[in-house]
Design a protein that fits this description.
The complex is a heterodimer.
Chain A lengths: L9 H10 L5 H21 L2 H17 L1 H6 L3 H20 L13 E3 L5 H20 L2 H12 L4 H8 L3 H19 L1
Chain B lengths: L16 E3 L5 H12 L7 E2 L5 E2 L4 H16 L3 H5 L5 H7 L1 H6 E7 L2 E6 L5 E5 L3 E2 L2 E6 L3 E6 L6 E5 L16 E9 L7 E6 L5 E6 L5 E6 L3 E8 L5 E8 L3 E2 L2 E3 L5 E9 L10 E5 L5 E6 L5 E6 L3 E13 L14 E14 L3 E2 L2 E3 L5 E11 L2 E2 L15 E6 L5 E7 L4 E6 L3 E8 L1 E2 L1 E11 L3 E2 L2 E4 L4 E8 L9 E7 L5 E8 L5 E6 L3 E8 L2 E9 L3 E2 L2 E2 L5 H12 L5 H15 L5 H44 L5 H17 L4 H17 L7 E3 L7 E6 L4 H4 L7 E5 L2 E2 L3 H8 L7 E7 L5 E7 L6
Parallel strand pairs in B: 11-17, 11-18, 19-25, 19-26, 27-35, 27-36, 33-39, 34-40, 37-43, 37-44
Antiparallel strand pairs in B: 2-3, 4-5, 5-6, 7-8, 8-9, 9-10, 11-14, 12-13, 12-15, 15-16, 19-22, 20-21, 20-23, 23-24, 27-28, 27-31, 29-30, 29-32, 32-34, 37-40, 38-39, 38-41, 41-42, 45-46, 46-47, 47-48, 47-49, 49-50
Helix pairs in contact in B: 6-7, 7-8, 8-9, 9-10
Classes of the chains: A mainly alpha, B alpha+beta.
């Protein structure tokens, strides 16, 4: 039996509960989705404070327009699209993504699945990888974060970014290649 | 969602890395923002047609305060002002577009809009918005200054376009200028407004005496509209202006035409000066307004065909008050609007005279008498004995079912209806909670007459029932009883709100053709007709039945959604299969699907049952394990759940499995639990005050009074050190504890660290 790309999501239940007046449902949804959206915003904006700012505005909008989200074919994709628009708007108004500021915040951290033995060397690798990753062009960063770090399929990324899946896949592999070369 | 290709993982430069998570305190911040932004406001329509919401000032103030707080935390200048131009920074901060924007600047007035609700508030120079004062209004921006601290100020710029979509094209600000002229080339004192392509008003200005106007804009202008100061001559100019330009606007009187005429009273005298005359383009489009001068003459300028001209004046009549007590004031005066209307089609200069003649009006008056058990229940003076009875609504309709007029019958039982056309039906209704009444009386009234309405309660039928929501719980709903005429027109008989137990009952004498049920904002009409006492229960799941069926049909054609749709269809049929319309259609659809796709359905059903069995088994196992779930077991269960979620991804079972999986993952994350409440901290180990049931501690046989002194190789001196040691372990891991019993016995025990259950 074939499966859908995305399983029937818990998000929709929470949204419905929110629409029906459950006061906590929205914040459960927030807890569930905000890390993913935040990671994506980081990829675009490269700055924690900016990403946090835009993250809040994304959810403020979702809170007000939750019915639109309910109607969306895939709520998570819809959210990413809102996030992307808002981030780009934000950049356009401020003039570039963290352009003049050094990347001195730790954005890339050792994952929970790293063993203690790996941790020490991993911290250093993270700092290098972060520098390399965030020096890539914005679209490459988005692709790597969405696909590699957040596990979105190219099908889903296509729904967000609009480019054909094959192009996305090709660009992703090129970007990963560039990233590896930078880290050699 | 599979993270990458496992084959490449060895060379993966991002192996074992993740992005930093958002600060958990953001949730509190969001709660605060949403709470502060939630105030609602009433709507007031201001002159010129722009919707202005007055009391929303409060909401806008709060929003601005939120923004201000966001930006004035710490040092606003160094933090937010790299370019040194403070205003510029605040102007371009994305935050403003996310909450409020300056929707328009109109000479000395600023319109501030909450971009989510669309609520607009009007502000002027010096107005205070939550500690900030409007310090300056420029053509393209508004400056705010802090009331106390002169150094604290910011500006909101005129940003146009729909910010909610987040893709407003940014255009350099530009200026449109010009002169407003009439056809003779003479300047006109008037106004000019600019609109975008979707007809949203961008900005506007009054012209000077020399007709000159100037608009500052930051969004593409699709058309300009201009008019003279008394809104009699209008002109519209379409274009696409994105940069500065000079445009002369001409109020071309030759394109408009004038409708003029006299408004007279019944005696032929001129109507009172100032009587309003309205020319209509169509049912809801007001063309233009004129009013009569001292000679009763009016003039209306229009620039589109006029379909009707109406004039109206207040008309006072005295209510019949048979029981008037001398010395008591006569309170039964009622004011109707005496309307005269002439229909036609005018697209050139024309003369239309209107005669306001109360003689064309007639009055039907009398008493409403309730007759119960064959006896009039009214007292001799006509008052209904039961004083708690709500007032009666009496509506008059003509033969075609067109409403003519309505009145409310006061408690004296006397009523009077004023009409301008023959009445052929009176509907007396008593609307209420839980019970309502509709009395339908047919006849012919075409001149002033006295008509007592005898409501014979013995001849009433009762239509009653209950309204339940989709969960079969009593539901609050509004029902409207309708009477359908042979020509298809529907007359409302009465409205009723259900009681708390969902019950309703309607008394009626003739026929109820249909009942409309409304819950929330959704109306659904259920056909009758009912001619006798009956019971009708409503299941509001039915309200959405057609929509649900539509969704199911869409999904039936999808390869992956087929089974989900079948499940949904089965449920629809089991609940609503006998409902006329969509219910019967659903049943037929299900039969068709079963005939055509029987084998496939059976296979999918077997698979579903198999997965459901696995799911139930897993749930039971998880339940049995309680808090103490060894890592290996947890992984097995997670894998099973993941597998079920994948295999049943197209139906609710998959969703349930996914939910259970998330819950399980969450419970396995975080600091593990041993399961006791700590006692006093003496620095000699973590004392146990009591052991919680069904936890790792209970299973390991720990007792109150025990002290934990070691966890694996970590020394434990108090609860904090135990917690620190625990946080280095995962839920489900086995650890060895060294424990000292109250009697001094020191022993070690191995236990599986527990998870936190919700």
């Amino acid at each position: 039996m074939k499966t859908l790309d995305a399983p029937m999501p818990l998000e929709l239940d929470l949204l419905k509960a929110h629409r029906q007046g459950d006061p906590d449902a929205f914040f459960q949804l927030y807890r569930l989705l905000s890390p993913r959206i935040y990671h994506y915003l980081l990829a675009i904006l490269r700055e924690r404070a900016d990403a946090e700012e835009v993250l809040q505005s994304v959810f403020t909008e979702v809170h007000r327009q939750s019915d639109r989200l309910l109607q969306a074919r895939d709520a998570r994709v819809y959210l990413l699209r809102i996030a992307r628009n808002k981030a780009i708007d934000f950049m356009r108004q401020r003039g570039g993504a963290g352009r003049n500021r050094p990347l001195d915040e730790a954005l890339l951290l050792p994952a929970d699945d790293a063993s203690p033995a790996e941790l020490a060397s991993l911290r250093e690798q993270c700092a290098r990888a972060q520098r390399a990753l965030f020096e890539l062009p914005q679209e490459d960063r988005e692709l790597i974060v969405l696909h590699r770090l957040e596990g979105w399929s190219f099908r889903e990324i296509h729904d967000v970014l609009g480019a054909p899946e094959s192009t996305l896949s090709y660009r992703y592999h090129q970007a990963m290649k560039t990233l590896s070369e930078k880290l050699q | 969602m599979n993270p990458g290709n496992p084959d490449n993982r060895a060379n993966d430069p991002l192996r074992h890395m993740r992005l930093v998570d958002p600060n958990p305190e953001l949730e509190l911040d969001l709660r605060r923002r949403l709470r502060d932004g939630a105030a609602a406001a009433p709507v007031v329509r201001a002159q010129g047609g722009h919707v202005i919401r007055v009391l929303a000032a409060l909401a806008a103030c709060t929003l601005i305060a939120v923004i201000a707080m966001t930006f004035f935390d710490g040092d606003p200048v160094t933090k937010t002002n790299p370019s040194g131009d403070r205003n510029l920074h605040f102007l371009t901060a994305g935050e403003f577009r996310d909450n409020v924007r300056v929707a328009g600047i109109f000479s000395n007035t600023v319109i501030i809009e909450d971009i989510y609700s669309g609520e607009q508030t009007l502000h002027g120079l010096g107005d205070e918005l939550h500690g900030y004062v409007i310090a300056a209004i420029h053509p393209d921006r508004v400056e705010f200054a802090h009331r106390e601290n002169a150094g604290d100020s910011f500006a909101l710029k005129l940003t146009n376009g729909r910010a909610a979509e987040g893709d407003t094209p940014v255009i350099e600000s530009f200026e449109l200028t010009g002169i407003l002229l009439d056809t003779d080339g003479a300047p006109v004192a008037g106004w000019v407004s600019a609109y975008d392509a979707s007809g949203i008003w961008l900005t506007g200005a009054m012209t000077g005496k020399d007709g000159a106007w100037r608009l500052n804009l930051r969004a593409a202008v699709a058309f300009l509209q201009a008019g003279d100061a008394i809104y009699q001559r209008l002109t519209k100019r379409v274009g696409n202006w994105k940069s500065s330009a000079s445009i002369d606007l001409i109020l071309d009187a030759s394109k408009s035409f004038v409708i003029r005429g006299a408004v007279t009273n019944a005696d032929g005298a001129a109507a009172a000066p100032g009587t309003q005359v309205v020319a209509w383009h169509g049912p809801r489009q007001r063309a233009s307004i004129g009013s009569t001068n001292e000679n009763g003459m009016y003039e209306i300028h229009a620039n589109a065909p006029v379909l009707a001209v109406k004039a109206r004046v207040p008309h006072v009549t005295r209510m019949p008050d048979t029981e008037h007590v001398p010395g008591k004031p006569i309170s039964m005066l009622r004011t109707d609007l005496l309307t005269v209307q002439r229909d036609g089609f005018w697209n050139a200069d024309a003369t239309v005279d209107l005669k306001l003649d109360p003689n064309t009006l007639f009055t039907v008056e009398g008493r409403v008498i309730h007759q119960i058990n064959g006896q009039p229940s009214n007292d001799e003076d006509g008052t209904l004995r039961s004083s708690s009875t709500p007032p009666l609504q009496i509506a008059a309709y003509d033969e075609a079912g067109e409403w003519i007029s309505s009145t409310t019958a006061p408690n004296t039982g006397a009523y009077a209806l004023t009409a301008c056309r023959p009445i052929s039906r009176l509907v007396v209704s008593m609307n209420g909670m839980a019970s309502a009444m509709a009395f339908d009386l047919q006849g012919h009234w075409y001149t002033s007459a006295t008509q007592d309405i005898v409501i014979d309660h013995d001849r009433f039928f009762t239509l009653s029932g209950a309204v339940r929501d989709a969960n079969a719980a009593p539901a609050g709903a509004i029902l409207a009883a309708l009477l359908q005429l042979p020509n298809g027109r529907e007359i409302p008989l009465c409205d009723i709100a259900t009681a708390q137990n969902g019950e309703y009952s309607i008394l009626f004498n003739g026929e109820i053709s249909a009942l409309s049920v409304c819950m929330g904002d959704r109306w659904r009409t259920f056909g009758g007709p009912w001619h006798a006492s009956d019971r009708m229960d409503f299941d509001l799941g039915l309200l959405t039945l057609a929509q649900q069926l539509h969704d199911v049909k869409q999904k039936l054609s999808g390869e992956t959604t087929f089974f989900e749709a079948c499940l949904a269809l089965q449920e629809l049929v089991s609940r609503y299969g006998s409902a006329p319309g969509a219910g019967v259609e659903a049943a037929e659809l299900l039969r068709g699907v079963q005939t055509r796709y029987g084998d496939r359905l059976l296979t999918l059903q077997r698979e579903y049952e198999e997965q459901n069995r696995r799911f139930q088994d897993t749930l039971q196992a998880l339940q049995a394990a309680g808090s103490v779930l060894p890592l290996a077991d947890a992984e097995t269960h997670m894998q099973t759940l993941q597998d079920i979620a994948k295999r049943a991804a197209n139906n609710r079972l998959g969703a349930a499995a996914d939910r259970e999986l998330t819950a399980l993952r969450n419970s396995m994350a975080g600091v593990p639990l041993i399961g006791f409440t700590p006692g006093a901290d003496n620095g000699d180990g973590c004392a146990i005050a009591s052991v919680l049931d069904n936890t790792a501690a209970a299973k390991a046989g720990l007792q109150a009074g025990d002290r934990i002194v070691k966890l694996d190789s970590d020394d434990v001196t108090n609860f904090q050190s135990l917690y620190n040691a625990l946080s280095r372990h995962k839920v489900g891991e086995s650890v060895t504890l060294e424990v000292v019993r109250a009697d001094g016995l020191r022993f070690t025990t191995t236990l599986t660290l527990g998870r936190r259950l919700q």
